[in-house]
C-alpha cells in the first residue's frame, strides 16, 4: 500500500465498517451497522482512512462528553483492515482523533485489550498511560481491558 487519506466517515461506509468489525473482532460481539448509525446520529467524530481507490481501509471514532470548558474525549473505536496494518493507518487515525480532542483541550480516555500489545504500544507512543483495569470488559470472550488516559493538550502542550 502506498497511500491513503483521512476524511469524515460517511453513512455509505457503514456496511464496510460492520464487515471489518466481523473480521477484526469475531470473538467480542462486533459492532453491527445500527451501532455505527447510532454513533453518527449522536454527532460523534468519526473518520475513515481511504486507499488510493477510495476504499475504506480503517475507521475511528471519538466522543466528546460534558460541556465546555470541562469536556472529556473518549476513543470509541479504531480499526484497520488486516491488509493495511503496519502502513501507518492506525497511527494516522489516532492522531486525527487526538487533534480533535486537542482543539477543545479535552483529556482523552480509551479501553484496550490487555493482550493487544501493538495497540498498547501505539497509545503509549502518544502519551497514554494505563489508569485502570476492567476485568472481563470484552464480551463474550471475557478479555480484560486497560483503561488508558492522555492529559488534555492545547496546541500540542499538556494543559
What does this structure look like?
The chain has one domain: Gcn5-related N-acetyltransferase (GNAT) (Aminopeptidase, 3-Layer(aba) Sandwich), CATH 3.40.630. The chain has 4 helices and 9 strands, in the order E-H-H-E-E-E-H-E-H-E-E-E-E. It has helices at 14-24, 33-41, 89-103, 117-125, and strands at 4-8, 45-51, 56-65, 72-80, 108-113, 129-138, 143-150, 153-154, 157-158. It is globular. Residues 4-153 form the N-acetyltransferase domain.
Question: Which descriptors apply to this entry?
Answer:
159 residues, alpha+beta, Aminopeptidase, seven-stranded mixed sheet, 28% helix, 37% strand, transferase, AcTrfase_RimI/Ard1
Structural domain tally: 1
SSE order: EHHEEEHEHEEEE
Low-confidence stretches: none
Strand content: 35-45%
The number of distinct helices, counting runs of at least 4 residues, comes to: 4
Strand order within the widest beta sheet:
1-2-3-4-5-7-6
In the CATH hierarchy, the architecture is 3-Layer(aba) Sandwich
Instruction: Give the termini distance in whole angstroms.
Output: 37 Å
Q: Which homologous superfamily in CATH is the superfamily?
A: Gcn5-related N-acetyltransferase (GNAT)
Number of DSSP strands?
9
Break the fold down into its secondary structure elements and pairings.
Blueprint: E1 4-8, H1 14-24, H2 33-41, E2 45-51, E3 56-65, E4 72-80, H3 89-103, E5 108-113, H4 117-125, E6 129-138, E7 143-150, E8 153-154, E9 157-158
Parallel strand pairs: 4-5
Antiparallel strand pairs: 1-2, 2-3, 3-4, 5-7, 6-7, 8-9
